[in-house]
Design brief:
With 791 residues, this protein is α/β, with parallel strands linked by helices. Helix content is 55%, strand content 15%. Among the domains are: 150 residues, PH-domain like; 347 residues, ABC transporter type 1, transmembrane domain (ABC transporter transmembrane region fold, Up-down Bundle), CATH 1.20.1560. Strand 10 and strand 11 form a beta hairpin. It is flat and about 125 Å long.
């Protein structure tokens, strides 16, 4: 939005800016030249010296400026040769270079990184306009970084906090009431059962509220008249009320044809009516509870499957950023809490609401004055509920995170029990678990303290209504304005009125637990895959295996590229060896080929098809992987070999095992191919697991093969068998192999040497040795290590 202010009889145009305070705007007006336009103004949250405070970055069509309380920095655009953003711990500095000097313009925290990420490109644009030539002053890495920051750092429009990666909504501004409402959307597929359960609930609740009315008739028209007659008139009863029962009591009027008041027949009819009302209500409640339980179990079944199914669709980055225990807690613990709410909490809430509506109607019909007295404690009940509710919510949010920590320790320690025992660290693990368990205990006790205070406080408030009713209601009975049976019925309904009120207030604790669990479950469901599947992916034929990288740049964290401007072509059937130091980007490269992640810049194609336009499943069906630490599922050997091809015949499984040099050790087991491998294959040796992984890849018959350190952790004899199996596997397939033992890559068609995310060398083993570069130095180091080991 344009804003114009006067400056020395000239107009200053603010094309894009955060409004300057009046004092700073006046200072800026004095500094600007005639006809100088302000393009961009942004506030910082640090001074250049690194102290918390506000300074202003200002970009005009003639210069770059910084405006602080005690400093002014100004650099003409025509003198700028380079502009970068320098990242420090927790903050960054915008730095521009002239021919002879570097100028630090402003400093800001990571909170403002998204706003400042595009500043270098805006400066470059103004420089090009000022000098009237295409001058590139932003380095390629900074140019990509600006695009990356602007694309990945989404901010909440309400609180301006950074929205966590993969999430579409801000967790701080999430309305937890909407989460519970959203939970009810899972009821819609079962609406018939829900409607029947609600009908039964309403009918059973209505029937359960009729006994006080029957008791009123029993007292006023059976027991008191009979007592008066027995005691010779010593009992004083409202004459008008008892003289014309047909006009004052509908129940008496209804039973008049078969029983007269103050008779044993009437007594029997009223007692029998109470019994049948209770019997019918109990029968309905029994069927309703089963129906609600069935409904809750089915909704939970749908929800649990939805969570697990969505987890399968998420990208690999989600699982590397979340702990196993945390994910398991969402699939099991949080879903179980939602089940408790759906099968038990809902019916109590609805029953309490229906009870309140019916009782309020009955009380108003009996005496609106006394009903108003009952309502007096209600505002205090609501305020007390809100006060305790806020504290319970914060307590449970912390408590669930502590439960996650306990689950994470279990998920960490149990699979690694062999390491724990090998290093005799049992006591240390017990201590670590006790610390986390103690945190849970502290949180639970805090929640219990709040709940313990909550109950008695609510009880005291509700008892106020009891005192008022006995005092004012008793006076009305003594003055003849209310019968004794009417007061007894009113008192009964009063207690029944406060019971659902107090119950609803007590359910606040359950509601907070449910809201917290729903938040965590829907956090998973709302997480968007980093590698989205295209809605209508093209049907690709069996691929030949031609892989091309075109200026590919990728970073796990914004601004920190792991691969930089990578370009190469691999022809079908070629074997490529990936070489480089740890952290050079080798594993990242193969992760991009398998489309575990999406590139930030550039393009990857397979047989000319852009990977971003291919459905991940369609691609991965034609790629085979043998990892450094092969993962085996807790099943049989045959099931693990056939994992990539579930419909494989037993003959195909055996053929794949033979090709992988695995058949001999498999048949040595008593159960052969039906042998259970244990969790993660713990019953097998490392070499045996590796050969099963190779057999799994052979059976899949992929067109592209990826070998990630396939022989790094085995002995020499086993390595020879694995190497023989791999030679069979790579024939006719495009292969990418990572190996720290460079000797295993000497037969590769070409070697790609990566260093700090860049492709620095490419060629055969002999060609790279002749260059005497990084590859030659790595080979030399390995030869020296081999000689030392030999000694």
């Amino acid at each position: 939005m344009a804003e114009r202010i006067a400056s020395r009889s000239n107009e200053l145009t603010h094309e894009e800016k955060v409004s300057l305070p009046q004092a700073e705007e006046a200072r800026l007006r004095e500094m600007l030249e005639a006809k100088e336009s302000v393009v961009l103004t942004l506030p910082t949250d640090y001074t250049l010296e690194g102290v918390f405070g506000t300074e202003w970055f200002i970009l005009t069509d003639r210069r770059v400026m910084a405006l602080g309380a005690e400093r002014v920095e100004s650099v003409p655009l025509k003198d700028i040769t380079r502009v970068i953003i320098v990242d420090y711990q927790g903050n960054s500095v915008l730095r521009v270079f002239t021919k002879f000097q570097a100028h630090d313009i402003v400093r800001y925290s990571r909170t403002l990184a998204a706003q400042f990420s595009s500043v270098p490109l805006k400066i470059e644009e103004q420089v090009q306009t000022a000098v009237n030539e295409k001058r590139e002053i932003v380095p390629p890495t900074e140019r990509w970084k600006a695009k990356s920051d602007g694309r990945t750092r989404n901010r909440c429009p309400q609180c301006n906090r950074v929205i966590p990666p993969r999430m579409g909504t801000c967790p701080h501004c999430l309305d937890r009431r909407q989460l519970v409402i959203r939970l009810f959307a899972y009821v819609l597929p079962h609406w018939r059962a829900a409607a029947l359960a609600f009908l039964l609930l309403f009918t059973a609740t209505f029937l359960s509220l009729t006994p006080p009315l029957i008791n009123r008739t029993l007292v006023d028209h059976v027991l008191l008249p009979a007592a008066q007659e027995t005691l010779g008139g010593n009992v004083d009863i409202d004459a008008e009320y008892t003289a014309s029962p047909a006009q004052n009591d509908r129940l008496v009027r209804l039973l008049a044809p078969i029983a007269q008041p103050a008779t044993k027949r009437m007594l029997f009819m009223l007692v029998a009516l109470q019994f049948f009302v209770h019997l019918a209500s109990s029968a309905m409640n029994a069927f309703r509870r089963f129906l609600i339980s069935w409904l809750g179990q089915n909704i939970t079944y749908d929800l649990r499957n939805a969570v697990y199914s969505h987890l399968q669709s998420l990208s690999l980055g989600y699982f590397t950023s979340e702990t196993t225990g945390r994910i398991m807690q969402r699939v099991t613990g949080d879903v179980r809490r939602l089940q408790d709410f759906l099968s038990d909490g809902i019916q109590h809430i609805l029953q309490d609401i229906i009870t309140l509506i019916i009782i309020t109607s009955i009380l108003l019909s009996m005496s609106w004055r006394l009903t108003l007295l009952i309502m007096i404690p209600t505002p205090f009940l609501i305020m007390t509920t809100m006060w305790f509710g806020q504290r319970l919510r914060r307590t449970y949010q912390v408590l669930w995170r502590r439960h996650d920590a306990v689950s994470s320790i279990l998920a960490d320690t149990i699979p690694g029990m062999r390491v724990v025992k090998a290093f005799a660290q049992e006591e240390r693990e017990v201590d670590r678990f006790e610390i986390r368990s103690k945190d849970v205990l502290t949180g639970e006790l805090r929640a219990a303290r709040i709940s313990a205070m909550y109950g008695p406080t609510m009880g005291t408030l509700t008892y106020m209504g009891t005192i008022l009713i006995w005092w004012f209601g008793g006076q009305r009975v003594m003055s003849g304005q209310l019968t004794l049976g009417g007061l007894m019925a009113f008192t009964n309904y009063m207690w029944r009125f406060y019971q659902p009120v107090q119950s609803l207030c007590n359910l606040n604790q359950r509601f907070q637990q449910t809201a917290s669990s729903a938040e965590r479950v829907f956090e998973v469901l709302d997480t968007e895959p980093e590698v989205p599947a295209t809605t209508s992916p093209p049907a690709i034929p069996p691929i030949r295996g031609r892989v091309e990288f075109k200026n590919v740049t990728f970073a796990y964290e914004p601004g920190e590229p792991v691969l930089k401007n990578l370009s190469f072509v691999v022809e079908p059937g070629e074997m490529i060896g990936l070489v480089g130091r740890s952290g050079a980007g080798k594993s990242t490269l193969i992760n991009l080929i398998m489309r575990f992640y999406t590139v930030d810049d550039g393009q990857i194609t397979i047989d000319g098809h852009d990977l971003s336009q291919i459905h991940p499943k369609s691609l991965r069906d034609q790629i085979g992987v043998v990892l450094q630490e092969p993962f085996l599922f807790n099943g049989s050997i045959a099931e693990n070999i056939a994992y990539g091809k579930p419909g494989a015949t037993f003959a195909e499984i055996v053929a794949a095992a033979k090709a992988a040099n695995a058949h001999e050790f498999i048949i040595s087991f008593p159960d052969g191919y039906d042998t259970r491998v244990g969790e993660r294959g713990t019953r097998l040796s490392g070499g045996e697991r590796q050969r099963l992984a190779i057999a799994r890849a052979i059976l899949k018959d992929p067109r592209i093969l990826i070998l990630d350190e396939a022989t790094s952790s085995v002995d020499t004899e086993t390595e020879a068998k694995i190497q023989e199996a791999l030679e069979r596997l790579v024939k006719g397939r495009t292969t990418f192999a990572i190996a720290h033992r460079l000797s295993t890559l000497r037969f590769a068609d070409r070697l790609f040497v990566l260093d700090k995310g860049e492709l620095v060398e490419m060629g055969t083993h002999d060609e790279l040795m002749a260059k005497d570069g990084i590859y030659a130095r790595l080979c030399g180091i390995q030869r020296e290590l081999a000689q030392i080991r030999a000694v």
